[in-house]
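A favour between colleagues. Tell me how you read the following sequence-structure pair.

===
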Amino acid sequence: MSQEQQTQQDGFESVESALSRTELFIEENKSIISYAIIGIVVLVAAYFGFQRFVSEPRNNEAASTMYVAEQYFQKDSFNLALNGDGNNYGFLDVIDNYGGTKAGKLAQYYAGISYMYLGQYEEAIAHLKKFNAKDIVLSSIAKGAMGDAYVELGNIEKGASCYEAAAANSDNKLTAPLYLYKAAVAYEKAGKNSKALSLYKKIKADYAESTEARQVEKSIEKLSK
């Protein structure tokens, strides 16, 4: 037998040995393996069952409950939107009773924006921090609103950081230059002129067609001296 044939034969024997060991392991542990498979199936079934029969109905209930609060929000009746009218839940009630649902999480956003309009900036930040969403538009607005709240509280640099996060979260030609501009203005107000200048230049270079790009020339000229 040649060296090559011997190598192939050794390889076949190794594979056969490995298969035999695997078969032996399965045979010796088939009960455990069966229980493990059954356990996985049960967990998967329980998850989808929970989503269909518990989570989705509860979320629908929360969304229905929040409807009146949303109407108050649209009418700028922010106190009623937050606290309810005695017959219908406000956003705070929805958060307390349905906090884990999609509607409950959205109520955090509404509550934060409502507090912003009421001038209660610390409360606004507290709720907006808890708002997490895959919706890029809403999550960007939330980050931008947090920036506004921090600026109003005098924490200018923190506000600027939130504006930058809002711009990065939704990098488009409409909102990104807006939030970058607000960040640059905030940094300039905080005395961080080099940081402000870099953002003004970024707006001019990356968003030349935006309204903000037409406003940055004087700022760039002033800070470049």
